[in-house]
Amino acid sequence: MDAVSRIGARGKRQAFWIEAAIVGAIALFLIIVMPVVLSNFRLNLLGRFLSLAIVALGIDLIWGYTGLLSLGHGIFFALGGYAISMHIKLEDADGGLPDFMSLYGGTELPWFWEPFYSFPFATFAVVTIPALLAGVLGYLVFRNRIKGVYFSILTQAATIVFFNFFNGQQKLFNGTNGLTNFQTLLGASVNTQSTQFVFYSLTIILLVGAYALCRWLTSGRFGRLLMAIRDDESRVRFSGYNPTEFKVLVFAVSGALAGIAGAMYTLQSGSVSPRLMDVAFSIEMVIWVAIGGRGTLVGAILGALLVNYARSFLSEQFAEIWLFFQGALFLIVVTVLPDGIVGWLKSQGIQSLRGRKQAFTYPSLEEDPEIQQERQELETKSSE
Amino acid sequence: MQKILEIEDVTVSFDGFKALNDLNFNLDVGELRVLIGPNGAGKTTFLDVITGKTKPTKGRVLFKGRNLRSLSEHQIARLGIGRKFQTPRVYLNLTPRENLELTSNRKKNVWSTLVGKPKNAERNSVAGLLETIGLSSRADIPAGLLSHGEKQRLEIGMLVAQSPDLLLVDEPVAGLTDEETENIGDLLLALAESHSILVIEHDMEFVRQIARKVTVLHQGSVLCEGNIDQVQNDPKVIEVYLGQPMDDSDTAHSLELEASGSEL
Amino acid sequence: MLIGLFDGLFNGISIGAVLLIAALGLAIVFGLMGVINLAHGELMMLGAYTTFVVQNAFRQFGEPFFEIYIFFALIAAFFVTAGVGLILERGVIRYLYGRPLETLLATWGVSLILQQFVRSVNWVLVIGLAVFCVLFFGGLWILNHRQNRAFHKWAIAALLPLSLGIAIAVGRFLADTYQLAVTRPWFGAQNVDVSAPTWLRGGLPLGNFQLPYARLFIIALTIVCVAGLYYFLQRSPWGLRIRAVTQNRSMSSCLGIPTQKVDALTFALGSGLAGVAGCAISYLGSVGPNTGQNYIVDTFMVVVVGGVGKLVGTIVAALAIGTVNYLVGSGTLAILFTPIQPLADFFTFFATTSMAKVMVFALIIAFLQVRPGGIFPQKGRTVDA
Q1: Do the Cβ atoms of A331 and C304 come within 8 Å?
Q2: Predicted confidence band at A211 (pLDDT cuts at 50, 70, 90)?
Q3: Can you tell me the ipTM of this complex?
Q4: How many angstroms away from the CA of B114 is the closest CA of chain A?
Q5: Does pTM surpass 0.90?
Q6: Phi and psi dihedrals of A348, rounded to 5?
Q7: Which of A270, B44, C20, C71 is the S-S candidate for C318 at Cβ 3.0 to 4.6 Å?
Q8: Which tens digits make up the pLDDT trace of A26-37?
Q9: Structural domain B3-90+162-259, CATH architecture
Q10: Is residue C45 domain-resident?
Q11: Where are the beta strands (DSSP E) in A76-136?
Q12: What is the domain extent for residue C23?
């Protein structure tokens, strides 16, 4: 028994290093090779899509693993974007008011803009404001055991509410136009190629970090508990765990990831506006994860990249059919491909590896010594 | 003798319908008690009240002398009450080993779940438990692939892994073969050495196998209490189950026959 | 002051009536199948467009008929959306029962398609679609009636691009031959306006302000719909079946109730009600492809606050949300609280339509802290068993 578990542990450590090496290699490839191959425009696009992959990871965490469908991640995404933009606007204004405020007749800086003069605070806010909001909202909802469809449409309503709020406050956030026309960040011009490359590289590093975080959260006991909550929440409760705490934490982490993603996206797209809190955008995020394969972190990243490339391709070529295509995507993914691309590949792979999956339902087959032996062989093989 | 569970005048009403009606009930430390009653007698609501899923409209529930009213399910579970559900409820996407590991975890707050690693002792006890419930060979496949009987055993295993002081077991042998039923009976009897157990069951043969004291519930309150023979010969019980007033000794006999089938 | 409050209440109730008529369909479908239809708003939009079409048709008949077109529009809107709902249920949703979150996503996909469809629908699209449906589903039908299933999957795989290609070719051909006559969109992306018949214009004078007839009409329509639905659910045999399935699906199925038919019927009914609601809202403003989106979230909130399974909950919730929305948004409350300065400032901040939504949402979250299950929650041990 002990020997077996030691072999298992060694195998695990080996698998860990292999995975780390692959992730590192891909990251290096993206940082070193891609800038050479792609034009500046395409590289910027890739950078944006990679930051969208970060929010996809967050959604996978809350939906794929914990079973809570949030239709409100656009809020956290946009808040992250606003936080960093507010700092840039203040730096651009150079002690004065941001340009749009004087336009709307504002004379003094609103109090909550003040701390954003400081860059450390702004970066801190990128993570904590979305996380706090998600935590509070999550606490108020989860503690009353509101879940399933109710949770989804409440988050959707929250999206509309935040959209309305940011849209309506011209003096505070420049309303519909949002914050745009960025100049400098930490003294460096935001729009030069080299700064943009820094943003691109930073996005990749953050994506790797987010992947590592999610991998850590989902692989251990915590991850299994998340799945347990997804499968049968009240059973978890009767086992002595308080699902509310776990759900609030995961929702907050997921919100923080969305905030980081939003900040990186904003830096590379050059603007942030309430449109990021559009209901449609938030639901679209969910479909990236669904296409890639929920419950698999790689799937979330892949899905985000794939759908967004499809989108940029299709809406460049035929703007009209993009909505048709997107609608069809929603329908196809839930009816034909519920496990997404990665999930489908996995299940097909497993089936071809061991076509004896059904045997478990038949106890008589299970007691068959041949099958027992076969399983043992497979087990030793997989633990080596 | 010290009571582990005291239920005093508990009433639970749903929109005027009284699922439990002025119920009084006591359980001694280390006792194995079987609860029977016709459908709709309030058996499952009874467990709901103890585990905190439903709060009593009136009355109070004391566990080791402590009032459970203000506590939520997970707090009650941490105090040492474990529950097995009527239909087996295990985490279908986790393996039996992971199922047991989750429930056997002692520190159940977020932080220790996040950073804590299962201790060797815990891992060994899980392995031992897998042995006991006969699922060692199935330990690492998703629990969704287990058969109904195996899920039943796994859930009882999870209950034990939680190492509660009081086990509430709702129909542990429903849908099991005779042999499996007997195994479960032996398992419960073994557990009764060190735990207090409350079992809800319909299968009279099984009740006969394990029961020392039986409580009959009817329309939300206790109809009678006693050992199995006393209960089976009690005229009130016969009336409730057979739906007719009894006036000769034949009826007692017919209940005996009826009961030795399986479902009452 | 009092007049102002009365005016606010009347407007609030009339907004509540719109919400209610929109939420009715959603609520019965949610109660029965646990499914929220995110395309509900688009079904309303379809109902509004149907009204527009019927109005144009009646305009050609001349005056006396134009005055009563609205009743035909109501019926047409009901049946058009009920038909779309039926297709939706049979085609997609019935495969997703027991997976409510997936249903959300699928119906969202449908809503996107419907929005774009209304924008770009023209003869080419319709004919192409018809050709595709005939070829593809006809082909499927033939395939399913053949004994030899060996190449079944491959045949479907070949059929799909083939029929798609033919449909596109036909469309191209038509577009090239008839040019603008067939490629001009029917409605386009612009909003269209539905003009009410003369007897719905103006209002009932009451003191120094007036109650618009259009709003009175919507209130009356809502009352009729609620009463009709109540009668249908409580008195008709199908209503009884719907209630039975709502209570216990598997038991009903065992007792010989055709649950699939019940589902389809309920969904069609709910969609039809959305159509009626769409007809009603077409008199409140112009109609565009995004019309549905404006109402949908408020409607969802009605369902959340109202709770499942009781019509009364939906009614109370709709009226409450509508009234609060209007009282806050129109600034009535801000005026009422003028004597108390901080409160007045507070309400002035929220006194726009969009900011009122912020406040209502906060109130709903607060309300859910007290009653998580809605106004009339379900009780008993079957709840979240």
Answers
A1: no
A2: very high
A3: 0.83
A4: 5
A5: no
A6: -65, -45
A7: C20
A8: 888 888 888 888
A9: 3-Layer(aba) Sandwich (3.40)
A10: yes
A11: none
A12: 2-121+185-370
